[in-house]
Design brief:
Length: 181
């Protein structure tokens, strides 16, 4: 059975609804659970936060937390140890942040990593347990690296070719949304 093609227009109607749901979830975390969040925090609805007490989790400005990430503040002994995530960070899908961890500004936690120790500013950590794999990065808004826009343009170009909106070569890059701004 062939499925109809999915265009960008058909999904765009859900953006407003997604914004309302995410906004409600963030308000609930702030006011009911006591999570401290900066401005422009983007998190998935599937993010799990085990908050031992009000104020035990702090998330900085312009930080993104991807789907199925988990943040714990209560240790095995039952004591609550606060977790702090800096500004302009990205926490990858399925990452686990354990109690008492501080993640520095501009840090990126890779997909599926388990963070047991503090993470310094401006680095990428990966693995179980998480280890530093790159230092001195310049993470921007929502923890994006400066070269991330190149990958996004290539992704849009591939989609334009699939949909027949462009052919291979420079015309495909001209079909990207950024080129039409």
């Amino acid at each position: 059975m062939a499925y109809p093609p999915i265009s960008g227009r058909s999904l765009s109607r859900f953006i407003r609804a997604r914004g309302l749901v995410i906004g409600s979830y963030i308000a609930w975390l702030r006011h009911v659970r006591g999570v401290r969040m900066g401005r422009e925090v983007d998190l998935s609805l599937s993010t799990r936060m085990e908050v031992g007490r009000r104020g035990a989790i702090s998330i900085g400005d312009e930080t993104a937390i991807a789907l199925n990430a988990a943040i714990f503040t209560r240790g095995e002994d039952g004591n609550v140890r606060p977790v702090s995530i800096g500004a302009r960070c990205f926490i990858g899908a399925g990452a686990v942040i354990l109690p008492g961890v501080t993640i520095g500004n501009g840090a990126i936690v890779a997909v599926g990593s388990v963070v047991r120790r503090d993470v310094p500013d401006d680095c990428i950590v990966s693995g179980n347990p998480a280890r530093i794999v790159r230092r001195g990065i310049d993470a921007g808004w929502l923890g994006r690296l400066p070269e991330a826009h190149i990958n996004q343009r290539l992704m849009y170009a591939r989609e334009a070719i699939k949909l027949g909106l462009a052919t291979r070569g420079p015309a495909a890059l001209e079909a990207t949304p950024e080129a039409n701004d």
